[in-house]
């Protein structure tokens, strides 16, 4: 029995979870749930594709990326562990975990979700760089979002310290048009200015050149507003008090052997980390979990245009036959207000997506709950709440 056959026999879940040979002969796990898809390399436990239902790909991989044994791919979500960043002693930058082969530990299906757990254990290769005894695992869980949980179990008999990161490359339409929210009034170390400590005062960060910042003492969700692709990308986290924002810009991007100079325009790294001053001290037997959750939501109604967006299907009640559809939206610059027109459509056949969460007015929020059993939508709430309309109601 081949390795692929053995993996599929032991852990496969039909179309929801199966293993294939990808570029460069590297084994990939393919996960599918509720119209979303993710792909993960067993080498490095590196996510190289994530596309939520109703949206284009969210994870960026360079067109020039090379899929080689023992080398991390440019893009995706490299696992940086047990240290984050470059070293001066000849050890590999961002640790060794992203370059080694991981093993499949488990996988399965739950309501609306599929998950896969990969693990890395000590070996001659790891001990040549780091003498500690450990178990490192990454759970990849796909449903309405992509949730990555990196768990470090320290099995040594003396305390040890790690830094780490889930080095997420997000795909954007044009980085020069994107706005990065969630980091206002947050201190950061600026690696482009010799690690000088500064504070971001802007509500929205807009990049105009090479950026490499370690934001400190932050638990915040980061939201990337992308007017070119008409969506928001959300990065939520747990077990982390630092966030890295990075884009190499044109000159540095062109110096990478696996990235074209112009590709900087379509990527942005928002990394869930324990980096800089944020370090993890593990006692013997200690466990630390680093979690990054990624999902997309519609940006909002383009001014003066119709707007029909999306919400994850699992948010709707299974037997609900109808959804509300936004017919039009009109933006009034003088007042900053939006007026919406709503219609009801039959959803049983095609399961269409609900209207954009940014496009509902307060008047609708207060007027509708009485007609639908007290359940409504909050304006600009990110993800919509389920509606339970009367079964007899038709468009």
Q: What does this 3D model show about the protein?
A:
With 395 residues, the chain is mainly beta. The chain is built from 4 helices and 25 strands. It has helices spanning 3-11, 124-127, 249-255, 362-367, and strands at residues 17-21, 27-33, 36-41, 46-51, 79-80, 103-110, 113-120, 134-142, 146-154, 160-162, 164-166, 169-171, 179-181, 187-190, 196-199, 204-205, 211-216, 222-226, 231-238, 242-247, 267-274, 280-282, 287-298, 322-332, 337-346. It has a 9-stranded antiparallel β-sheet with strand order 6-7-8-9-23-19-18-13-16, with no helix packed on it. β1 and β2 (27-33) form a beta hairpin. The longest helix is centred in the first third of the chain and has 9 residues, at 3-11. The radius of gyration is 22 Å and the shape is globular. The termini are far apart.
Properties at a glance:
395 residues; 9-stranded antiparallel β-sheet; disordered C terminus; mainly beta; 38% strand; globular
């Amino acid at each position: 029995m081949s390795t692929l056959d053995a993996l599929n026999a032991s852990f496969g879940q039909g179309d929801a979870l199966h293993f294939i040979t990808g570029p460069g002969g590297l084994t990939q796990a393919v996960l599918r749930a509720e119209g979303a898809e993710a792909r993960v390399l067993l080498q490095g436990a590196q996510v190289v594709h994530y596309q939520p239902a109703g949206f284009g790909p969210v994870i960026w991989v360079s067109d020039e990326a090379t899929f080689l044994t023992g080398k991390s791919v440019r893009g995706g979500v490299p696992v940086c562990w047990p240290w984050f960043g470059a070293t001066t002693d000849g050890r590999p930058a961002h640790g060794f975990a992203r370059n080694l082969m991981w093993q499949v530990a488990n996988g399965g299906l739950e309501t609306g979700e599929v998950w896969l757990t990969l693990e890395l254990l000590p070996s001659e290769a790891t001990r040549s760089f780091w003498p500690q005894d450990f178990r490192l695992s990454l759970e990849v869980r796909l449903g309405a979002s992509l949730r990555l949980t990196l768990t470090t179990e320290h099995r040594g008999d003396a305390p040890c310290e790690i830094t780490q990161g889930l080095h997420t490359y997000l795909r954007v339409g044009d980085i020069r048009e994107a706005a990065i929210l969630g980091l206002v009034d947050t201190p950061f170390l600026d690696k482009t200015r010799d690690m000088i400590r500064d504070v971001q005062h802007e509500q929205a960060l807009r990049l105009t050149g090479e950026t490499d910042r370690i934001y400190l003492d932050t638990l915040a969700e980061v939201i990337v507003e992308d007017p070119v692709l008409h969506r928001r990308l959300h990065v939520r986290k747990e077990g982390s008090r630092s966030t890295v924002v990075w884009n190499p810009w044109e000159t540095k991007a062109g110096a990478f052997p696996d990235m074209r100079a112009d590709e900087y325009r379509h990527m942005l790294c928002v990394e869930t980390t324990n980096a800089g001053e944020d370090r993890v001290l593990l006692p013997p037997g200690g466990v630390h979990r680093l979690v990054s959750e990624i999902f997309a939501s519609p940006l909002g109604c383009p001014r003066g245009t119709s707007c029909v967006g999306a919400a994850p299907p699992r948010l709707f009640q299974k037997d609900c036959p109808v959804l509300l559809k936004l017919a039009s939206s009109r933006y009034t610059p003088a007042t900053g207000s939006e007026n919406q027109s709503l219609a009801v459509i039959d959803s049983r056949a095609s399961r269409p997506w609900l209207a954009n969460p940014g496009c509902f007015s307060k008047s609708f929020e207060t007027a509708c709950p009485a007609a639908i059993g007290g359940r409504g939508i909050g304006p600009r709430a990110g993800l919509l709440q389920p509606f339970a309309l009367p079964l007899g109601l038709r468009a």
